[in-house]
Amino acid sequence: MHRTIFDTPGVNTLLRALSRGFLHLNGWRVEGLLPPQAHKAVLIAAPHTSNWDLPYTLMVAMCLNLQPYWMGKASIFRFPFGALMRWLGGIPVDRSKSNNLVAASAQAIRDADGPVQLIVPPEGTRGKVRHWKTGFYFIAREAGVPIVLAYMDYEKKRSGLGPLFTPTGDVERDMAEIKRFYAGVKGRNPTQFEAQ
Asked: Rounded to 10 degrees, what is the CA torsion of 111, 61, 154, 191?
């Protein structure tokens, strides 16, 4: 995995303090801790309903001392912002190409020398969707790592890490259980999020 803002000495300490201050002043509460067995994990980023989710997610990750990477559409990695997006932990995804993103992501997690948490929004987009994509599930299963049920509730102004979930292989049952956790969570644009 490439170097990011989260493992850049000095900068990460300053941004951690600024993130805590900003979230506190704006009434946000950061909850949870990453258990040691989840030093390598897939984090669900739900709900994902706004462009504001990325900066808030990065600030919360700073507060929780995570080593996150996140997937974004390839267009936001174009010049002049590509280097910055990668430094913020971004990994470009070209949605027009049929490639094995699950296998590549799982391999990258397995090969990482240190802690790595891959953040994946199950909706696959910030627009309204009827069904969640299962890529995060299969990445975690193939990499042999847990799924962390991370959340951002704009209504209650709380964000953080919920319980760990270990995929059993019964996708339908597991997805139903995961979605139950998110049933009361409200995104910035709540009409665009359904956890059913």
From this structure: -20
